[in-house]
Specification:
Layout lengths: L2 H15 L4 H20 L9 E2 L11 E9 L3 E10 H4 L1 E10 L9 H17 L13 E7 L3 E5 L2 E4 L16 H11 L4 E7 L1 H10 L5 E7 L3 E8 L15 E5 L13 H8 L8 H6 L1 H19 L18 H8 L7 H11 L5 H36 L7 E6 L1 H5 L1 H20 L2 E5 L3 H12 L5
Parallel strand pairs: 2-5, 5-8, 9-12, 12-13
Antiparallel strand pairs: 1-11, 2-3, 3-4, 6-7, 9-10, 10-11
The structure holds adenosine-5'-diphosphate.
Length: 459
């Protein structure tokens, strides 16, 4: 029998289980807004942590002077300097460098890691050339993007809750990471100091806001996912009277932990059960780049086993978790050739699979089903945030910009389109004309430097 017929029931069931018709999207958007409200009421009140960023003043474009940014979030750290020239000149000059962190430092002591980072900063600062000018008597100020779970205690302090992403550095958990870095800078006798500690979504929002006053939300769709937005302080009971001069503050939702009412399949449940954080980050596991390719692999493996999609035997390599990556999935969906040659070679290279044309067509359908669910659910999440904002102070009548960043959003056109479609369906064509979803590439680095400027010790 043809493989099209034998796998048809699996495909049909997958499409049914992944379906995101308007009522499902509406439920997800409403649940997102409700979970946000619960997370703002008390710490631990919802799946969403709704972390206070202590960022109450966003860049306006008037910032001037020299500022640095340091981004630590993975196996590299990035340093950047920017000379700001105010409304007229904007970004006069910028330079950046990337340094990879030696493996042994990821398992060493806190002092060793921060000394290494401080010496990287020192070398970078020494190369500060003619386009950059620090007024005399000032120390260099840094915006520090630190993408690990932190309990922020002020704009320039935060306690590390735990290391993630393969880091196992001893002696940092429970400590203020800004103090750790400032102490290392002192040990190097470096004239530099952290003025702002920021999450990468917050950096993205600040970086985009610098160019556009209507930016109110930032979303990262890369390996993982997260979102932050501008909230009214009066809508944050857990703030307990702490005031902000602007009456607004940025809240980091940590929305990857959302889980309410998502359409999940047996493949999602199995992937989650075998993951290192089982039961956690369910929204992230449904919509972000680390997982989409793996969900597709699990579906294809079942189709190969139960429906002989790729012939009588099941290719061994297809049983290995994460061999098929989201960029492979996206590349296959860009293949417009008649015999789907690129699909064939990607399947072969990634998973050792030989495929005929009918199998390739089914593979595309599977990719599309998973990308469609992911993109539409991400869109529903964004609408949830917008609904929550609109309930505090009406935004739907005016232009509002959602700044997007991350490799998944940047490189997966079908996903991007599905996301936009869901937003338009949910909000209707009139309101959605005012909601601008905009790619803001690598804004988080400059965003952190801008937040060092808006929170400068000298103002
Ligand atoms: P990170 O989120 O790891 O900090 P990025 O924002 O660059 O970094 O996102 C990288 C992620 O984006 C990858 O893990 C992958 O899931 C996704 N990605 C990268 N390239 C593509 C692509 N061509 N198509 C779809 N997804 C991609």
């Amino acid at each position: 029998r043809s493989n099209v017929i034998t796998v048809a029931p699996i495909l049909t069931k997958l499409q049914k289980d992944c379906a995101t018709p308007l009522p499902v999207l509406r439920h997800v958007a409403d649940a997102m807004a409700a979970d946000m409200r619960d997370g703002l009421a008390v710490d631990g009140g919802s799946d969403l942590k709704m972390i206070l960023s202590y960022v109450d003043s966003l860049p306006t474009g008037n910032e001037t002077g020299l500022f640095y940014a340091l981004d630590l979030g993975g196996t590299n750290f990035r340093v950047l300097r920017v000379q700001l020239g105010g409304k007229a000149e904007r970004v006069v000059a910028t330079e950046f460098e990337q340094v990879s962190i030696p493996q042994d430092l990821m398992f060493g002591t806190s002092e060793e890691l921060f000394d290494f980072i401080a010496s990287g900063l020192a070398k970078f600062a020494q190369k500060e050339g003619g386009n950059f000018h620090l007024p005399s008597g000032r120390t260099r100020e840094i915006g520090f993007t630190f993408s690990f779970p932190v309990k922020q205690t002020s704009i320039a302090s935060g306690i590390l809750m735990k290391w993630t992403k393969g880091f196992a550095v001893s002696g940092t958990a429970g400590k203020d990471v800004v103090a750790c870095l400032n102490e290392a800078l002192e040990r190097q006798r470096l004239d530099m100091q952290v003025s702002a500690l920021v999450n990468d979504t917050v950096g993205t929002l600040a970086g985009a806001r610098y160019w556009d006053d209507d930016v109110m939300v930032a979303v990262i769709l890369g390996t993982g996912t997260n979102a932050c937005y501008v909230e009214c302080v009066d809508a944050i009971p857990k703030l307990q009277g702490q005031k902000s001069t602007s009456g607004r503050t940025i809240v980091n939702t940590e929305w990857g932990a959302f889980s309410n009412g998502l359409p999940l399949t047996e493949f999602d449940r199995e992937m989650d059960a075998e993951s290192i954080n089982s039961g956690e980050q369910i929204f992230e596991k449904t919509i972000s780049g680390m997982y989409l390719g793996e969900i597709v692999r699990r579906v294809l493996f079942k189709m190969a086993e139960a429906g002989a999609l790729f012939g009588e035997s099941v290719p061994e390599k297809l049983s290995i978790p994460f061999v098929l990556r989201t960029p492979d999935m996206s590349a296959m969906q860009q293949d417009n050739s008649r015999d789907l040659e690129a699909v064939g070679s990607i399947l072969y290279d990634a998973a050792g699979v030989n495929s005929d044309l009918s199998a390739r067509k089914i593979v595309i359908e599977v990719c599309d089903t998973i990308a469609k669910r992911g993109g539409r659910l991400a869109g529903a999440g964004i609408v949830g945030i917008l609904q929550k904002m609109d309930s505090e102070s009406s935004i739907f009548g005016k232009r509002t910009v959602v700044a997007m960043d991350g490799g998944l959003y940047e490189h997966y056109p079908q996903y991007r389109r599905y996301l936009q479609d869901a937003v338009t369906e949910l909000l209707g064509s009139e309101i959605s004309k005012n909601i601008v979803i905009e790619h803001s590439k690598d804004g988080s680095g400059i965003g952190a430097a801008l937040l060092a400027a808006t929170n400068s010790k000298y103002d």
